[in-house]
Amino acid sequence: MDANDVLQRYAAGQREFVKAELRGVDLRWANLRHINLAEAKLEEAQLNRAKLARSNLQGADLSRAKLVRAELVNANLAAANLHKADLWAADLWGADLRSANLSDSDLSEANLQRANLSGANLSGANLRMADLREATLDGTIMPNR
Length: 145
Known about the structure:
little secondary structure
């Protein structure tokens, strides 16, 4: 499946893309609010400035994905693999990141207010100027810096 397939199906009202194979897909600037991409393969996907608010990305593989300035407000990213993902200035307000792998990711200037990071792995992550106000950090593995 490629970016055009996703965008056409989404425009036609489809929201279910569970376990979709979307490695390296280019969905920059796409409006995909409320999409279900649970367990999708999105390694190295281009999602800069994508609108993914209230989307389900639980268990998705977003390793090395580009999510610069992406809108992920109230998104479900529980148990997602975001290893080495670029989330610079992403809006993750209220996102569910429980048990997510964010190791070596760039979260600098990201909005993580009210995000649930319980049990998440942030080892090696860049949190420079990230906003973690009211975030839940129980059992979170924090960067060693």
